Amino acid sequence: MNTFMAIMSQLFWGVTVGALEAAFATVARGAFAVFGLGGAGWWMVKRRRERQERRSNARNED
Could you give the CA distance from residue 59 to residue 51 in angstroms, rounded to a whole number? Predict the structure, then answer.
């Protein structure tokens, strides 16, 4: 009986740790995707605004 309980304990911890690791990996991937896409979008908006600002300044100088 002790052997059975030891095996069950090992399985329980293996499944628990495996599930936690998978959950953390999924959350981390999601965070990287959100911050990566958000950062790229922010950078593009910033570039577009700077370009529009330069064009409007060039028109106002004429």
Answer: 12
Which tokens is 59 given?
């028109």
DSSP labels for the chain? -HHHHHHHHHHHHHHHHHHHHHHHHHHHHHHHHHHHHHHHHHHHHHHHHHHHHHHHHHHHH-
Residue pLDDT, tens place only, 34-46? 999 999 999 999 9
Rounded distance, CA 41 to CA 37, Å? 6
Give the span between the Cα atoms of 30 and 61, in whole angstroms.
Answer: 46
